[in-house]
Every structure is written in C-alpha cells, then in structure tokens.
Amino acid sequence: MRKVALLLVAVAAVVLLRTMVVTTYVVESHSMEPTVGSGSLVLVDRLTYRISPIRRDQLVVFRSEGRLALKRVVGVAGDVVAMRDGVLHVNGRARSESYVDLASVDGTYTGRVVVPRNSLYVLGDRREGSIDSRRYGPVPLSAVRGRVLAHW
Length: 152
Fold this sequence. Notes:
This protein is of the alpha+beta class. It has helices at residues 2-21, 102-105, 133-136; strands at 22-26, 41-45, 59-64, 67-76, 80-84, 87-90, 93-94, 110-114, 119-123, 139-140, 144-151.
C-alpha cells in the first residue's frame, strides 16, 4: 500500500511540474533559424517569467493568431524599436545580432514602435521569413506561455 501511495505522489508531482513549471514544444517553423530550427524540441519554463521580468534577447513561447509561436524578445515595455536598412535599433541604438543574416534583410525599414506597458516586441532570427511583431504588433504578456530554457 505504501508503494502505491509513493507512486501516486510521484505521478502527481510529475504532472504538476509538467503543467505548472516546465513543458516542451516542438518547433514547427523556420523563423528562428539558425538559432532554433524547425523540428527542434524546446524546454520552456512556465513559471519564473511570472516572477522575474522577461528581458531583451530571451526566447519566448506565446500564443499568436491561434497558434503557439517562438520568437526573440527585442523590446520590452517603454522601448522604442525600429529597423533601418535591416539593422534593429532599440532606444536609438543599433543592436549587434550575429544570428541575423543582414544581407537577406538589407533595405528593410520599419517605423518606430513604442512597446506598450505589459507587452513585448518580438522578432524571428530569420527576419526575411518571419511573421512577428512587424506584422501583428507587440505581444501582450498575457499571451506568453513561457521562456525557453534549452533547445535541441
């Protein structure tokens, strides 16, 4: 009887961890290449982003247009984000992004966007093929499902 109780506690702990703390997703898009390729498995922290703020350059999973999406945070609340000739500018400063193929986005311009309170501005690393905040605008924090801890 004691073994059965321990087994039930262990199963309950795993279910709780899986639903509340960490989960996995399979990436179904090429928009984060070369960082995370299509078919990659990502481990997502579903808890700590609620306690400590999400920062620029972190990868997040969120709900967008009825689907889960994985993108890089490039702007947080209050940031001013723009693209000039394919180069990302945040708060007036050009960002160095070694994972972006600048030749593929050469000539890309966007207007200035001030990231609203309780929102994030997200972009795919493969800018030329990514549907991201340039299309659907800033992502509300309420849509975020978690931060990416690891991918393989």
